[in-house]
UniProtKB/TrEMBL annotation:
GO molecular function: serine-type endopeptidase activity
NCBIfam families for the chain: sigpep_I_arch (TIGR02228)
Keyword terms, alphabetized: Membrane, Transmembrane, Transmembrane helix
The UniProt record lists the keyword Transmembrane helix: yes
Any one of the GO CC terms: membrane
Highest taxon above the source species: Archaea
Subcellular location: Membrane
Name of this protein: Signal peptidase I
Transmembrane segments: 6-26
Organism: Methanobacterium subterraneum
A biological process term (GO) from this entry: signal peptide processing
Gene3D superfamilies: Umud Fragment, subunit A
Length: 139
């Protein structure tokens, strides 16, 4: 009985950790790379105190999730260029692949929450299963 309970606890913990590393796409701004309702696998800048990805080490082409100052929900867009501000800090210019122009403001490293995990240049995507979440959240 104790071994069975331990197995369930491990399964629940693994499930929670995995769920924390999945992000539902809520808009079409990154089409055709991924679509609304797709789920992407992410690495976090801070997961329970562990830095899985350093927000200062990101590169042009990386797809990041950041807290925008121009939109209420986290934004998932690609870094198209990197700038050093007059304060000496690193800033990212981001853009949705399907958007005509870059996002309205620069992204500081402190705004970055996560990076989409890619194999080669392809992000790891689980198609369409996020629709349930979008429906529940009314998005």
């Amino acid at each position: 009985m104790g071994r069975e309970i331990a197995s369930y606890v491990i399964i629940i913990i693994v499930g929670i950790v995995l769920a924390q590393h999945l992000n539902v796409v809520v808009s079409g701004s990154m089409e055709p790379v991924f679509y609304r309702g797709d789920v992407v696998v992410i690495e976090k800048t801070n997961f329970l105190g562990i830095q899985e990805v350093n927000p200062s080490d990101l590169k042009v082409g990386d797809i990041i999730i950041y807290q925008a100052n121009w939109f209420p929900e986290p934004v998932i867009h690609r870094i198209i260029s990197i700038q050093t501000g007059s304060d000496g800090q690193t800033y990212y210019v981001t853009k949705g692949d399907n958007n005509p122009k870059p996002d309205p403001s620069l992204v500081s490293t402190s705004q970055v929450h996560a990076k989409v995990v890619s194999l080669g240049n392809q992000p790891i995507i689980i198609p369409k299963i996020g629709y349930i979440t979008l429906w529940i959240r009314g998005l």
